[in-house]
Task: inverse folding
């Protein structure tokens, strides 16, 4: 409040409501977008032909053994490369919500449980999963070799007939990754606000709505949201217990990160493995040094919030239908559901109806980039 | 488990005897505290820039008795949130009393407590000291 009054501008639609400390915290959520450069683990990252190849493959049912679904069947651009369903439907109803594919380069771990540590490997799981696309490496190689793709494949990776099935699987996934890493959200009204604050342009900053500013204050303050939804992508990339039930059925439990850690320790397609194209093994520290902890049971990856208005329903099981339901969830969180040794920061927020609307206005301002 | 660093025995006592608190740590290093009476001091140079990115720490032990340091352990916890780090840091012995720690990772903003303990080699001459440093991460 003081900040806006000191600026003495009256023509702007709104004042800047944030304190100096709140402004400092706000600046930590940018700048955006981030330029990541090429992925060193993927030799076709940034290659325009690979991007086009990956885009074609993404919508081609050839990647499913029965040719009845493609990546785009679940990762629909209209829904932020998610599917608007509570839980994904492959060859049957799956256990988790389809995660968005936007801003993948901001991830350290992939999927709700982090069973992979890089973009190309995260495509391998659904291709091989019998409940999703159902290929094995040999059937995938046969399908690609018998399609119209061998020439394009050969130009990027070499003669497919001389490649082992596992190498074809990885190369196809790297082409998919080259495409998927181009799926990024743009600047939003929040970013214009944040950048104006950084530049000291309070007139422009003041055009960001009062409601969104109050919601931002809750987000970085009393709501404790920014503890996990931190940084420019609004995620710390790690795993937390958000108080969402992890029972899939009465007798079946989703282990969450605990299962993801078991999976990645057996996964040959990590940044530390031989399939990475990076001789420096950049980023492999994470899989090499990650800890197994009992508290990982039932925790799930913190999703980024950019573009979130398109990706409802929310949470790992899609149990919250819209942003209002998410805010209500945290507003009246079930403390008995949380781990005893889990996050000590979550507690019912006691937000008023106006405050809930403000928080939603802020969240919506992370999605108005027109993408 | 914390990875342990074992220094080779070639590190000479004469070299260690010449080490002082003022001389052995860079001027920008921060002194850790201990609730115990310790024969030497611990200093840290922090490479922390922001949360959610791995960073390194250089540790310096200065004073009498650092020749008895056989291994060290390094970890960090977030007392207010009742959790530690999600990654195990790597510890490298550089010189007598100097260690480089990689793979430190603070995944949340707020106050973290860096915990460094030193341990002697002998079970019968077990001398261990715990040093801590409060670090505010953003």
Result:
């Amino acid at each position: 409040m003081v900040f806006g009054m000191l600026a003495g501008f009256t023509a702007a639609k709104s004042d800047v409501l944030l304190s100096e400390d709140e402004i400092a915290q706000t600046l930590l959520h940018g700048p955006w977008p981030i330029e990541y450069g090429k992925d060193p683990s993927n030799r076709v990252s940034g290659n325009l032909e690979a991007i086009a190849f990956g885009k074609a493959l993404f919508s081609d049912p050839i990647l499913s053994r029965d040719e009845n679904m493609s990546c785009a069947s679940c990762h629909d651009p209209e829904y932020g490369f998610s599917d608007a369903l509570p839980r994904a439907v492959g060859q049957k109803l799956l256990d988790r919500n389809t995660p968005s594919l936007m801003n993948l380069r901001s991830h350290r771990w992939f999927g709700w449980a982090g069973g992979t540590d890089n973009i190309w490997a995260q495509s391998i799981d659904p291709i091989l999963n019998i409940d999703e696309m159902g290929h094995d490496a040999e059937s995938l190689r046969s399908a690609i070799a018998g399609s119209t793709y061998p020439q394009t494949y050969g130009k990027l990776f070499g003669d497919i007939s001389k490649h082992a099935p596992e190498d074809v699987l990885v190369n196809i996934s790297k082409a998919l990754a080259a495409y998927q890493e181009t799926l990024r959200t743009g600047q939003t009204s929040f970013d214009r606000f944040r950048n104006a604050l950084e530049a000291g342009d309070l007139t422009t900053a003041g055009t960001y709505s009062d409601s969104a500013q109050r919601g931002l204050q809750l987000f970085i303050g009393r709501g404790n949201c920014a503890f996990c939804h931190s940084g420019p992508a609004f995620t710390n990339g790690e795993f937390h217990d958000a108080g969402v039930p992890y029972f899939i059925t009465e007798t079946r439990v989703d282990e969450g990160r605990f299962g993801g850690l078991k999976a990645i320790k057996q996964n040959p397609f990590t940044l530390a493995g031989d399939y990475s194209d990076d001789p420096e093994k950049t980023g492999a520290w994470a899989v090499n040094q990650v800890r197994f902890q009992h508290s990982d049971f039932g925790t799930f990856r913190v999703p980024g919030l950019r573009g979130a208005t398109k990706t409802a329903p929310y949470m790992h099981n899609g149990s919250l239908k819209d942003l209002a339901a998410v805010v209500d969830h945290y507003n009246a969180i079930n403390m008995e559901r949380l781990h005893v040794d889990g996050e000590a920061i979550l507690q019912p927020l006691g937000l008023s109806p106006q405050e809930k609307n403000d928080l939603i206005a802020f969240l919506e301002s992370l999605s108005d980039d027109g993408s | 488990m914390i990875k342990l660093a074992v220094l080779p025995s070639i590190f000479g006592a004469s070299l260690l005897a010449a080490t002082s608190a003022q001389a052995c740590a860079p001027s920008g290093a921060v002194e850790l505290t201990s609730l115990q009476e310790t024969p030497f001091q611990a200093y840290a140079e922090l490479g922390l820039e922001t949360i959610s990115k791995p960073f390194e720490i250089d540790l310096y032990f200065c004073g009498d008795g650092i020749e008895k340091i056989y291994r060290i352990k390094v970890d960090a916890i977030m007392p207010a949130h009742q959790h530690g780090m999600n990654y195990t840091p790597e510890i490298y012995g550089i010189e007598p009393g100097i260690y480089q720690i990689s793979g430190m990772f603070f995944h949340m903003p707020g106050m973290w407590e860096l915990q460094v303990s030193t341990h002697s080699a002998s079970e019968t001459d077990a001398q261990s000291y715990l040093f801590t440093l409060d670090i505010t991460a953003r």
